[in-house]
Amino acid sequence: MKTEEILARLVAFPSVVGTANHDIVEWIRTYLTEFGAKVTVLPGPEGDRSNLFASIGPVDRPGIMLSGHMDVVPANEPTWTSDPFTLRREDERLYGRGTSDMKGFLACALAALPAIASLPLSRPLHLAFSYDEEAGCRGVPHLITRLADLCAKPEGCIVGEPSGMRAIRAHKGKAAARIEIVGRSGHSSRPDLGLNAIHAMAEIVAEAVRSAEALAEGPFDGNFEPPYSSLQVGTIAGGQAVNIIPDRCTIELEARAVAGVDPARLVAAVEAKLESLADRGFKTRWDSLSTYPSLSLNEDAPLAALLRDLTGQEPLPAVSYGTEAGLYQAAGIDAIICGPGDIARAHRADEYIEIGELAVCRTMIEALGQRLCA
What single-letter DSSP state applies at residue 102? Predict the structure, then answer.
């Protein structure tokens, strides 16, 4: 099948993050099996979502893994000019939800598989397709814990997030959380009888601001912009009317960590401040929304050299967005980012990928297959 045809099939599955993905997993499993791949479907604890792992070649030898996520963000933007789950071609562009982020990469890997399967591989090529990446990389940890049962430890992992086919060696880690404070309502004329949840949350926000200001003092990593870790409160909601003591307030905050810094540590002071409110009668709740480590691959790593050869370009030092690559590295597998498309087109109406970008990616993967014969 042509890459465009496979992409059309993948886009047609509305595999929105946080929803069941059996249909897209089963289609990919059937396709891979036709070409002799060893395929394992790995159900997640949610019960209605699965990761998929497949191998071509001798799985008892270290190989290379191509990693991507099957889920997409919702397509609720009112400015879509066509059905987001029907691939539309216009000149050299292919429009549809997930075309850049990141079903385009999945389509290239699947399209290249028949050619790779016909090669005398001395090392394997693995495909690791995950779910719920868009919810903070929630699916792939379950896949990573099973790798030792599925294959010899891979030499490296190429995560195909949209990068314009320029390899990327690093990204920041992230921790995000939702905080809820519940107080006691009442008439605003008697604040002594209530517990104002917004006032209490103001203390939490102030702690977050203090933490953010401290992070700007370092440690520093000049590969990133800004070159330090960061923290911000992104949303806040609470209250009913100006004359009612608000009994509930919620915020969402995130921290982004430079390499070598644990993202969870960046929000520890905020979490400790929240816990102190219990002594004053407030009920509190901290829900982790996402957490993943940073990625930092050495410039002289063999995987960086491999991508330099395959793409003909020097890998970029770092990007601001996060991926599953840091989780693979944390598991002891060198990882790098390289995929077709542009992250600036993702998560917006009329997301698209260019046909030429798909061709370059497929060529790279097929060239990788040739390397695995040596």
Answer: I
Closest by Cα among 217, 183, 219, 223 to 203: 183
In which domain, by residue range, is 245 found?
173-292
Length of the chain: 374
Return the amino acid letter for 324.
E
Residues 27 and 131 in one domain: yes
Are residues 129 and 191 both part of a single domain? Answer: no
Domain boundary among 273, 292, 311: 292
What is the four-CA torsion angle of 13, 3, 358, 99, rounded to 10 degrees? Answer: -10
Total count of domains within the chain:
2
| Same domain flag for 122 and 259 | no
Strand order in the sheet with 173-182: 230-238, 248-257, 173-182, 283-292
Tens-digit pLDDT profile for residues 171-224? 999 999 999 999 999 999 999 999 999 999 999 999 999 999 999 999 999 999
Considering the entire predicted model, what is its pTM? 0.91
Strands of the sheet with 335-337, listed across from one edge: 38-43, 50-56, 125-130, 64-69, 156-159, 335-337
86 with 109, same domain: the answer is yes
Q: Same structural domain for residues 184 and 270?
A: yes
**Region label for 344, one of left (φ > 0), alpha (ψ between -120 and 50) or beta (otherwise):** alpha
Are the C-beta atoms of 162 and 339 separated by less than 8 Å?
yes
Give kind and range of the element (H or E) at residue 158: strand 156-159
Domain-terminating residue out of 244, 260, 292 = 292
Is the Cβ–Cβ distance between 343 and 82 less than 8 Å?
no
Half-sphere exposure of 244 (CA within 13 A, CB side): 10
Does 224 lie in the same domain as 248? yes
Q: What is the CATH number of the domain that holds 363?
A: 3.40.630.10
Q: List, for residues 294-336, the tens digit of each pLDDT value.
A: 999 999 999 999 999 999 999 999 987 889 999 999 999 999 9
Kindly list the distances between the CA atom of residue 363 and the CA atoms of 154, 178, 293, 346, 367, in Å, as whole numbers in the listed order: 21, 43, 30, 23, 6
